[in-house]
Model the fold of this input.
Amino acid sequence: QVQLQESGPGLVKPSQTLSLTCTVSGGSISSGSYYWSWIRQPAGKGLEWIGRIYTSGSTNYNPSLKSRVTISVDTSKNQFSLKLSSVTAADTAVYYCARDVQKKGSSSWYYWFDPWGQGTLVTVSS
Amino acid sequence: SYVLTQPPSVSVAPGQTARITCGGNNIGSKSVHWYQQKPGQAPVLVVYDDSDRPSGIPERFSGSNSGNTATLTISRVEAGDEADYYCQVWDSSSDRVVFGGGTKLTVL
Done:
């Protein structure tokens, strides 16, 4: 059973870069046809998709964050990572990593998230 | 950009049926997925591809999708079902994931 675990600093200063890593256990990050995503949730608010990566290195990003986001993968470590630059207090949130499960539909691919990591709180403050 | 609209809250008595809607332009042409999130926990997939249930999810959870509305139905609601529920789709026109704003289910 695949499990995901986020790790990284819980406190980041404004204007700096937020860096998080998601470690995948219970299976190889390269096996199967999966994308791997980052999602965040400010306190008391809804879910916001940040972006995703395929093990080939192909990425998709949320247009609202695209200019500040980089997602990378290290298959040798069974990990993928998130970098978010020029952070502000608005980037304070619980950050989740998740596996994208995909299915071919009649006109496009469909994707959903299962499983998720437990989440890690990142606070942006001086 | 594609928008999903959920009611902020739904209340239901134990043993009754809860219906949580997710509205979107021609959402019936998309595949809709639902997540349950309890306080302090990560979201959990409860319905995928409109109406399929992952293993371990009770049959009380079901989904439907047609026209401009997708619906998550929870039958014989229990106190343990109290949580936030989110719908989600993949918007192929912009290659991005879209979440609904979430619905808080209260069990009276």
Observations:
- Chain B has a mean pLDDT of 97.
- The radius of gyration of chain B is 13 Å.
